[in-house]
Amino acid sequence: MYKQTLLLISLIFLGLSTYAQKWTDAELRRANTAANADYLTNEEKDIVLYLNLVRIDGEKFYYTFLEDYINNYNAKVKQYRNYNELKITRTNPYYTSLLKHLRPVKNLQLFYPDEKLTALSRGHAQDLNRNNLESHDSSNGDKFSKRLSKYFPNKAMSENIDFGYSTSLEIVCHLLLDCGVPALGHRFNIIDQKYKLNTVGVSIQPHPAYSWCAVMDFVAQPVFYSNNR
Q1: CA 70 to CA 95: how far, in whole Å?
Q2: Residue 167 and residue 76: Cα distance in Å, rounded?
Q3: Residues linked to residue 205 through DSSP beta bridges, in sequence order
Q4: Does residue 19 lie in a domain region?
Q5: Which one, out of 39, 108, 117, 154, has a CA that is 20 to 30 A from the CA of 224?
Q6: What is the pTM of this model?
């Protein structure tokens, strides 16, 4: 109960109390699988929280936290001359297709954080920062699958990278919308059911060109091998 109270206080501090109230205490507790992962920052823990809320009830996430993100984003970009190009409208095809993809998402297997996987995510984010890259490939040319397979051999895996955001809700919503990415790969990683991805590593790091980058690595592991269960 104490941890749940802290979570709700955190959501209220973020200005999301109206939306938090639409989620039950049980749902918020279930989603907070990274609560005790001391190798993650609070913002990184909240990334896991939001990823899991999407998987618990995709449609509810669409009409609560995603709506808040879009409203805040549109308010921020209103200062620019090309506001009409930048804003996310309710007719934006990425916005409308997201509802179609999130509506059937209910009570999927949750993501649980893993310390080793997080170290790999952090290492890649730091590499991107050090070398001013925007790629799934390392500066030495290694593919993400090679980096991960060293410690997670013969597992289904995938990777999301986000640029420009440092806060958890913005990162998750930006990847969910996947504007400008026709294949919607980031979105489908988050709501994955095909590959049974259930383990996640997360790192937010500075980036010279985009201010911030966030790396999320996903692996499918047998449930009894996954950490923090």
Answers
A1: 10
A2: 15
A3: 213
A4: no
A5: 39
A6: 0.88
Distances from the Cα of 69 to the Cαs of 1, 65, 95, 169, 177, in angstroms? 28, 6, 12, 7, 11
Is position 195 within any domain? yes
Which two three-digit tokens encode residue 183? 């294949």
Mean pLDDT, residues 86-107: 95
Q: How far is the C-alpha of 223 from the C-alpha of 227, rounded, in Å?
A: 9
Q: What is the CATH number of the domain that holds 174?
A: 3.40.33.10
Residue 189 and residue 163 in contact, taking contact as beta carbons nearer than 8 Å: no
Q: How many residues does the chain have?
A: 229
Residue 19: CB partners within 8 Å, gap ≥ 6? 11, 64, 65, 67, 68
Residue 120 domain flag: yes
Report yes or no: 216 and 202 within 8 Å, Cβ to Cβ.
yes
Domain region containing 157:
41-55+108-219
Domain count, the chain: 1
Residue 47 — pLDDT band, cuts 50, 70, 90? very high
- Residue 212 and residue 166 in contact, taking contact as beta carbons nearer than 8 Å: yes
* Each residue's pLDDT tens digit, 62-74: 999 999 999 999 9
**Is residue 68 in some structural domain?**
no
